[in-house]
## 1
Amino acid sequence: MNNSNLSIAHSESDLNGKQKIGLALVGIGLLALLIAWAGAGASAPLAFLLVAFFGFAIGGLLFAHASYQDKIPGIKNNGVYHKSISARGIIAWILAILITGFYICLYWFPAYIEGLIRMHDPLSQVLRNKPADQWFTYGTFYTVAVLIMGIKFIYKYRHNTYQIIRTISVMCFQLLLAYLLPAFLATMNQPEAYFTYFWPLDSYALRPEWFGWNDPASVGMIGYIIIISGILLPFVVTPILTYLYGKRWYCSWVCGCGGLAETAGDPFRQLSDKSLTAWKIERWMIYAVLVAITLLTILLWVNHQTHNELLGSITEPYKKTYGFLIASMFSGVIGVGFYPIMGSRVWCRFGCPMAALLGLQQKFFSRFRITANGGQCISCGNCSTYCEMGIDVRAYAQRGQDIVRASCVGCGICAAVCPRGVLRLENAADDVNNRTKDIRTMHISKEGISIPM
Amino acid sequence: MHIAIIGNGISGVTAARFIRKLSDHKITIISAETEYFFSRTALMYIYMGHMRFKDTQPYEPWFWEKNRIDLVKDYVNNIDFNAKKLEFQSGSALSYDKLILATGSDSNKFGWPGQDLDGVHGLYSYQDLEAMERCSKGLKRAVIVGGGLIGIEMAEMFHSRNIPVTFLVRENSYWSNVLPKEESNIINKHIKENHIDLRLETELKEILPDANGKVRAVITNKGEEIACGFVGLTAGVHPNISFLKNTTLETHRGILVDNFLKTNIKDVYAIGDCAQIRTPKPGRRPVEAIWYTGRMMGETVAYNICGHPTEYDPGIWFNSAKFFDIEYQVYGYVPAEMPDEMETIYWAHPDGRKSIRLNFDKKEKHILGFNLMGVRYRHEVCEKWLREKTSIETVLQNLGMANFDPEFYEEYESEVIDIYNKKTNSNIALKRKRGLKGIFSFLKSNG
């Protein structure tokens, strides 16, 4: 198909005045970051911090407002596949390289981003009573991205109450529990705990050291809260909530990775691969990572109990390899760096052990599913295209079949973009074990046409 | 047995899929339009940049081989019904044992002067989309002729690229031969708030060329000349059967078929847009160029070919569309003009973009139809109420069950009931709100 002539860039030149001012301010913010990075961040941290922050915040919000507020509420996907940034064009590749480079520096060469880190000293002093390090810098970028792009997302979907509430939720969890609370704990000389990350996503949770068993006296009150929540969250709270609402309660309402994907990653959700081959790779990879982290946790405990006598020699290299390949390379560098190329949920779909575990429960023991509305599907493909997890939603919808997939994070965008009102996220206990069995499309039989129940 | 299917739209492809489910027959689908099946209703989203062409294809290329469905990209010039042979434009030929004609539609042209000029196009095929794309570069204004579903889609397409649109509608309100007055008005307003130059009660008289034979302007029946570089002809479609004229195949507007979708020639069937049912079910039209009926015919013809004679029965009417940002769903009988024996309850949201209408029988008080704008209702629930001729009061009390809007959306069912209560001096209340719980037992219950 000569589809290339159907994707000439049109929309780029159609920016209105306010959008241009917004982008210019973002550009100033970006410039401030560059200069700070080049070294000036250490000499005048506050000035650069403020210019960068307000450049991004005001510029970003102005752009979002100008893009959506004056338009009639509804699905605003015009030009997604005509724009370089959202259609794997040159801008997308440049952005991917920039983010990837930032992650590589962050994990392995923080000295190269010293200017950016120093720029955050004033903020770190206020929030944590100590100078910034690369992780505080990263956390600040991350949180600002979730907040600004979250507000943009809310503008975009302002007709959709589900999207608004869900987005406010991920913004609050990121800002309060994943950013301010750890900083506050730091001022109290407590460990910087992230209560939105727990086993198996947090590979360091459930480690013997966490439990302070080497030195029980050192575990303070906060320490006990961390330990108890570290056990309760994965083994009690998670199964209950996943049974009631599916994995969405975590993946698209709470999780920080999900939070970034749903906000900053939203312009890239259509880039996920929907092929059957991708689904096959997904199933192998994600469960392999779950096995790997389980094995790691077991190894650490065996080692601890046997004082490194059993398997002690392989545990440390194994831990290092997991940390390098999965925690850094996969979830960070590829997971976020490749947003503009592979979509916003590469890590969540192919790598996250938490998503794997929640997905198993969602598939086999949850009330959640996406229902298809009888025979109304026109197979247009909007649902599949905008599924960030690469689920071929249409394949089910056009047969009138409920969608029960381990990977579905319940973002609800398929239901939002459907032009015929075919999809609905729902929970019901009646049919937990046979949610996928009813095919309720219009069907012909000898008895005539009906929707079988 | 070799089954040849002409046309790879939803009808032909559904037929092929179900023949494969039911049998081991050899299946060949022939199309000159595209290599693979795509969703015709999604053409607009390609132009608007929501999707790429390949995203509109419901099946990946491996699907056809895996299901042993042969695809031939060629144009059928002639069918030798006696020899059971298809003759292609490329010069090759293909023999069949049974033939399914699923050739779809063509855009209507009513003999307007200039209707074949460069820059005049309908919107039905992939080639039409390519033509629109070609004409869009530097386009200053498009004029669209015909106030139906395709016309408004075309208006939305150009609007998405900030190309000004003048929309000529013959009737005094948009799609007023199908939509009741209030709903039609909602769409009129919505078209205008999207800055479309809507001209009601205006018809095309003539299309004027420039020196190169390209569209320059149109003249309306009111004598006005409107300069434009593109004219969209969207005044409906007709069965695409011109290549079948002057054969022994009986045709009228479409290919005439009986209730088992058989034509007058043995082993030849016709389905989808191109078929004309000789004796349609009460209340149904002989030619229905609709996605859903095409799909149902495809499934029915598969049963008939595979030895399970099944009458075509499209069931209770349903349809849907989206007008810019307003979704539309209909279930059952919702005529544009209210017949005497019909009573209606109509609720509209103050934002002017949502409405709910329930039609019921004045005498028997049972439900007849649902019409929704900007609100989603559940097909299965509405269908069951309609099939069982449930009383309007029972429907109203349980109306929440029909609501299919996303979680946390406001529910308007009790406002609908208020209108009914005021109108009939009744005092009924909503018993059920939205949600899947309860719907299962309702749908599985008898009577």
Note: Residues 171 and 243 of chain A are 24 Å apart (CA to CA).
## 2
Amino acid sequence: MDRAKSRGFLGGLKDSIPIALGYLSVSFGFGIMAVSNGLSVFAAVLISMTNLTSAGQVAGLTVIASDGGLIEMAIAQLVINLRYSLMSLSLSQKLDSKFTWLSRLGVSFGITDEIFAVASGKSEEVSKQYMAGLISLPWVGWAAGTLLGGAAGEILPEKLKAALGIAIYGMFVAIFVPAARKAIGVLTVVAIAVGGACCMRYIPVFSGISEGFRIIICTVIAAAAGAFFFPVKHDEEGGGEK
Amino acid sequence: MTAKLLVYILVMAGVTYLVRMLPLMVFRRKIRSRYVQSFLYYVPYAVLGAMTIPAVFYATGSVISASVGLAAAFVLAFFGKSLIVVALSASAAAFAAELIIGAVK
């Protein structure tokens, strides 16, 4: 009985609590950032409810704020979120036989680094009820955090708002610094990406390249160099943002 | 909300969904290429690095307070502090720096 429960909707909900709490705080930073870039709270929450991804949303915000093109937006999302394809691919082997194409369509909306990590950490196949539970609470947390951050961004004094604007970058740092400390490959990739982004920002030759494309170019070059010089072992696949 | 913003959001959400959905619906086989696997493994770190520096220096309105916040984040992240601790400490450090700059002026 207990075993059946832990595989169902409630089991998914329970496993998702830590993810939801984490999302609540990360998306708070996104909400503030969106509002300080001139978006309404409603638009910020709409982005969070339809995208459910941190790096992609910040890049999207960059494109919107710099009045970039739609092709630029599409390529940025494609490159930045490409890793989800790998996770989808891996997860497709983990879903139990009761998954219909409709439930596959639903579950694929909610594949994030953290949700993928928990689902693939299960020893048995996962049910659609379990996946529904695992996805719904983090989704609510992600939207609610954006709402709170956006609202806070509208009422907080300027100095405090400015200081909170750095929060989302703090979270990015908290993801790549520990990983770079542990693996020379990650350190190299981050160094190349940062070096590239600085070159494109400060060397006048690159001033014609828009913000979104700068992120795309730096990402592709850095990740390709990392894959070439420091290929990872198979069991590390699907790692990433935590 | 303008129509243009709505189109931006539509493209964002649409591409992000397709990237997640297509492999789950279409492919049933694993990617075997070690190079492709490695590339996808490194993408998040490359993106986060390229988006953080140098953009972070312009996030608070003053390069000095942003640098103080970034330094705090680096130190705490290096010692493995959690996401939320690093983020809030970066904000607190930047805020303190803003206050000090304001007082000196």
Note: Chain B has two domains: 1-30, 34-104.
## 3
Amino acid sequence: MDTLALTRRILKTNLQLEEAAHFDRDVALLGALPEFNSLTITSILAAIEDETGCEIHDDEISGEIFESVGSLADFIDEKLA
Amino acid sequence: MTAVATGEQLSARYLGVPGERVFTLSFQPQQAARGQVLYLPPFAEEMNRCRALAAAQARQFAAAGYGCTLMDYRGTGDSDGVFEAVSLQDWLADVGLVLDDIAQRYSQPPLLWGIRSGCLLGACTAGAANASSTVTNSTAASAIGTRIAGLLMLQPVVSGRRFVRQLVRQRIAAAVERGAGETSSEDIQQRWQAGESVEIGGYQPSARLMLELEQMELTDFNLAGLPLRWLEHLGEGQDEPGLAVQRMLDTLREGGAQVELHGFAGPAIWQLNERAATPELLDVLGALYRP
């Protein structure tokens, strides 16, 4: 599976942001995009769980995951491993 | 837009005894219906977000010749009861009550159309009907004995456990944003186990409701022989659903359900706070249930 493509798709759906379809890995998210708030974070985490069937635990959730498109893609990769 | 002119017969009714009445709104075609559909709404805020779609599709069903009944579970919408006090068993009883009414009125086994967690209630009801129909000539034809024509599942919640965990996370994220004290999932679980109700996203579900919801898994129900149409949201450039959904479809097929998968594009309305039109989804449904 192309994790970067999956990450872009999840971002686009949950942020309702067309540009997300073309985000590079270095695009900053949390603190940089006004659309990125706690509700977005929960819906993105839910989407990752629903798409991959993985389980994300409370203690895995940190701001670092949401720093950039790349960090989020890496997190999804880890969950898929 | 001729459908508006031809119209459908609308009837709003309350079923059940005072204090426990269930509100139903039925859309019937002008001519004899080809079949009946019962809509099973999703949970809490998702229910509100899907209201406009449910009404639009009920009209589209009627225009295609199917009767469609919308219902509010007790403690929601126009039904009796308060949300804080209802349980999942109450809601399943409500579904049974409406099914009985549809069976009496139209003598047609309905299709159960769920959105999100409504699909779990639909599968639970269909599974119970399936189990009782294998008992020879069951005359215990209450709600559970009613035959079900099939399931239509829109973006179904497959795991109550995962769904509840996601709801709880909303509360945790909101607390973090407010700078409020730490709350953990375990903490909330303990409060539920002790019977305490915990506010989540502006709703105050009973501990019992959440603990019951957590026990619902789609794979636990016997859907053998049932036609099951699964509608899954596909993002741009995506031509098949994620791995988890594909695995689930395989499991359902192995269990004997007659599964069809249909994708749809457009906004994911159950998770959006702003109302959005859903022409793509209505087109897919319109093509599946044609006049």
Note: Strands of chain B lie at 9-15, 22-28, 35-40, 66-71, 111-115, 150-154, 227-233, 258-264.
## 4
Amino acid sequence: MPSAFDNVRFLLGDAAALARLCAQPARPPFHEPWLRFLDDVAQRLLRDPRTAAHPDVATFAFWCRRASLEALRKPYGALPAPRLGRGVAFHVAPANVPVNFAYSLVAGMLAGNANVVRVPSKGFPQVERICAALREAEAAHPDMRDRLCLVQYGHEKAVTDALSAACDARVVWGGDDTIQSIRQSPLPPRAVEIAFADRYSFAVADADRYLEMDAARVAQDFYNDTYLTDQNACTSPQLVAWRGNAVAEAQARFWAALHARVVGRYALQAVQAVGKRAAACRLAAALEGRLAAAPDNLVTRIAVSRPIPELIDFKYHSGFFVECAVATWDEILPLCGSRCQTIACIGVAPGEIAQSLVPHAPRGVDRIVPVGRTLDFALVWDGHDLIRELSRAIEC
Amino acid sequence: MFELAPFALDRALKEPWLAAQLADLTSLHRERCPAYRRMLDGLGFDLRRAARVADFPFLPVRLFKEMELRSVPADAVFKTMTSSGTTGQTPSIIALDRETAGSQQKALVKIVADFIGPRRLPMLILDCPSVVKDRALFSARGAGILGFSIFGTERFYTLDDDMRLDVAGIREFLARHAGQPVLLFGFTFIVWKHFYRELARLEAPLDLSRGILVHGGGWKKLAGEAVTPREFKARFAEACGLARIHDYYGMVEQTGSIFMECERGHLHASVFSEVIPRRPFDFAPCAVGEPGILEAVSLLPRSYPGHCLLTEDEGRLLGEDDCPCGRKGKYFEVLGRLANAEIRGCSDTYAVRV
């Protein structure tokens, strides 16, 4: 491989291994020896007492246990034609989410590919833990040699150029700006790309049924959906649309319970507080949003009269929520344009929301999930079936 | 307000007076700037319940980079100021009518005269002439130089357009004004990088012991050079005998009502201004000594709603009415820019782009 890799830090593999990796034959999806390898990685993480300190690492470990992988395989049990991985998958993971790289990597493996993953350069302990487990497991599974490379590098385009030129599939996380910048590096003519763009997600809540639920539990779930990722994940709800008779009462209870959950857990920095106030002013000036009175800056709520598509341009993060009331669920359709990804449901079944929306054929909405589940990774993500798109069918 | 001595009001006098002025200004902008009115309504601001200066609503200063906020018709705009775009950020665009531009000039004269005296002085401008050439669009640097130029009798630009120091020209200028006080003015990082550094290398040092240096624009660009304000002063004194040095804190969004550093090294609010450090947690005003987000208040803006601005700087009050320099009002220090937050999430964005 060229000297473009001089400034690359290899967390797994090295430049020579990378060269060999590019020449490896692909495997079929859910290749048995690779499933054993992943289960080994999972067991190593779950045995490690340090994993307990990182719920996101534990969640990942559970996700790639044997039993979980078997469940993931189920929907693919009857793939019509024989399939093989495309060859080499090159993943660009988001800079600010520690474990996303691992999910992307596993998706690439489950589809039957050798994988090169650019992992966040920041020293996340989660990245270190998962890399260590992968290294140990690789040593125990000789057939996995030269199948995985984990790299860290800055914005050196030469490296992205070289990795893009060598791959058969490119998976780009990190939103619109990152996609734009990675696309400056050309792909081989037959290579495919899956790019995860900036998205908009929101929550729907049935006020009357919410009032019968455990407020602290819902607050914990909603906290995990939002504050855990600074409300900056594409899955994080930006807005809550309420329906029902006791909306005001439900809102009061919901936000008070959320505030109780956030206090002492979330460290709001000064620049985030200023940013949220600016976002509130912006929304007030443009769409007459009203800031709700609050004891402090931890939870920022802006009321608007109805859900209109323009709200999507006013999204913010760090605990900034828009809310409105609707009479029927189809009133949320204006938010369901192509940028809409996830709808989180509070006190209402995802199926009920789907029933209201699907007949109207919205351009967006890729997932409708219960509150607390927005971050759960699935092999169909953002409307992309990662197994099918990262493998190819052999017609026969 | 231009009749008042700029540093004569103590808390008992200034607080109610300033609150009354702010009530008028807030009503004026509310009436004339629809976007500002919608913001006040959105923030739930009720003028009848604003008793203290700290009760008035503040706008994050970054809003001026994103939208045009104006309280006069477009044809009343006499000039437009922009913050310097040198750091790659979007500049603020501030619309000034004649009245506001005039107030800025008057306030600046009153404030600065309190530190350098009422007489105009021969003036060395520590910058290059091209920075003020484009009169149509004022940059912060150009506006600062033109604003301060009224304190100069004869003005001399000490740098050429390639930022080279004209040492011979300075010597000739100083010889012509030998025995007189000389005013020096420039932006902190330019003063350091293009003036001090060259001075320090001269074999025959300049004698600036009768000089008064006024500089502003912030220390951010000097952070990489590890120059503290204290060292800045010490090095100048050593290199050329320059002992009277006044930093100032100001922003293009509130031109004129600058906060000047006194002989004791403290920044002072004047009768035209106020400073309120606020807690990030709930925006409550900080106690003396407690670091917070600086809110800057100015009574000058009448053509745009920039009278109460939440900056992105951190600072703290050092005291009120009791600075040993004798000036009344609050005095404070700036601790630097707010730390850039690392925001998690799968969209690779940061709270503030550097």
Note: Residues 235 and 375 of chain A are 6 Å apart (CA to CA).
